[in-house]
Design goal:
It contains 16 helices and 13 strands. The protein is an alpha/beta fold and 335 residues long. The strands form three sheets. It has a six-stranded mixed β-sheet with strand order 2-1-3-10-4-13, with helices on both faces. Strands 7-6-8-5-9 form a five-stranded mixed β-sheet, with helices on both faces. Strands 11-12 form a two-stranded antiparallel ribbon. It comes from Methylorubrum zatmanii.
Length: 335
């Protein structure tokens, strides 16, 4: 069976890229073609309009699309999770220097960020941060990071949407003072000398439900085979022994226009340092292991609660039930 699967160039697209490129899909009788999408909005619309058979998708966006909160309403279901974590907040060198945090723990960094953000807002020059989509854990992690420092984002910081592959260029051009994006783009910005990694997403929200496999609910006949292929590929990707090969694959075939060694850094735990040489290593930075793969209704409800906390919805209780129903653990088990 021929299928087209959409993805956005990120480290956590690894399970679907490996499924297509390393034979996991073929072993399940699937001819899987990858479609690299330039933005999450484009991917959302192409999936909703039937141009894609499945997608590597932001977990909150899959819910928002299915519930008619973002773009054309789509008849979607989520038969498996692809990844937890993977995001980070990167700030420009100038902003980091102004903050001058005394440590790298997330609370200290958040408080120094909040201080500068208030000063800039009071001077009529609010900070601008990039996020990849309003319905994303990136947006929620920026809000939660600000709250850790005692800062209410409303009126204090501007959020603008930038597709992941364009975030580094936006920082280089001074369009944003920082951004929250998935790997490897934070590492790319740091390696290019454009900014400092201020906080890892998993420090703000441990085991944050990040990407899911989204499929049209009405085309369920191929889902078990696709789930099997992607699940096996995800487990392969999670093995440290495969990281060098996987990094090369993602750099060459995944549309990650950067060096394979930078991608490998993100697979191995987001090794990063700031200008003073302080280092950060977190083995949970990107998780694609077997333990994350079964879709959990509790994750869907948490995401809806974040939508409500961000002012995107009002009826969190009612929409929580609807979102939980989209997460099909039974479909994952059938796979």
């Amino acid at each position: 069976m021929k299928l087209t699967l959409g993805y956005v160039p990120l480290t956590d697209a690894a399970p679907v890229i490996a499924a297509a490129e390393l034979g996991f899909a073929r072993a399940e009788g699937l001819d899987l073609t990858l479609s690299r999408e330039p933005s999450w909005a484009t991917l959302r619309d192409r999936l909703a309009l039937g141009h894609l058979d499945a997608a590597h998708m932001l977990a909150p966006l899959a819910i928002a699309s299915a519930l008619g909160l973002s773009g054309p309403q789509a008849d979607l279901t989520v038969p498996m999770s692809l990844s937890f974590n993977g995001n980070a907040i990167t700030l420009s060198n100038a902003l980091w220097q102004a903050m001058a945090p005394e440590g790298l723990d997330v609370g200290t960094v958040a408080r120094t960020f909040a201080r500068i953000a208030r000063e800039r807002a009071q001077a009529g020059r609010p900070l601008t941060l990039g996020t990849v989509h309003p319905f994303s854990c990136h947006s929620y992690q920026i809000r939660l990071f600000a709250e850790l420092g005692g800062l209410d984002l409303g009126g204090q910081v501007r959020l603008v949407v930038i597709p992941p592959p364009q975030t580094v260029d936006a920082l280089a051009r001074g369009i944003v003072d920082g951004f929250c994006v998935g790997a490897p783009w934070n590492t790319v910005a740091f390696a290019a000398g454009l900014g400092q990694i201020a906080a890892l997403g998993c420090e703000i929200v441990p085991d944050c439900p990040e990407k899911v496999l989204a499929v049209p609910a009405s085309d369920a006949d191929y889902v078990p085979a696709l789930v099997r292929a992607v699940a096996k590929a995800g487990r392969w990707c999670a093995e440290p022994a495969h990281h060098a090969e996987l990094a090369t694959l993602l750099a060459k075939r995944g549309g990650l226009a950067t060096h394979a060694d930078l991608v490998r850094v993100t697979l191995e735990g987001a090794v990063a340092s700031d200008a003073t040489g302080r280092r950060r290593v977190n083995p949970d930075y990107v998780r694609m292991d077997a333990a994350v793969q079964a879709p959990r209704a509790s994750d869907a409800r948490w995401l809806v609660a974040q939508m409500a906390a961000s002012g995107q919805i009002e009826d969190a209780a009612g929409l929580g039930d609807a979102a939980a129903a989209l997460y099909r653990a039974d479909a994952f088990l059938l796979g």
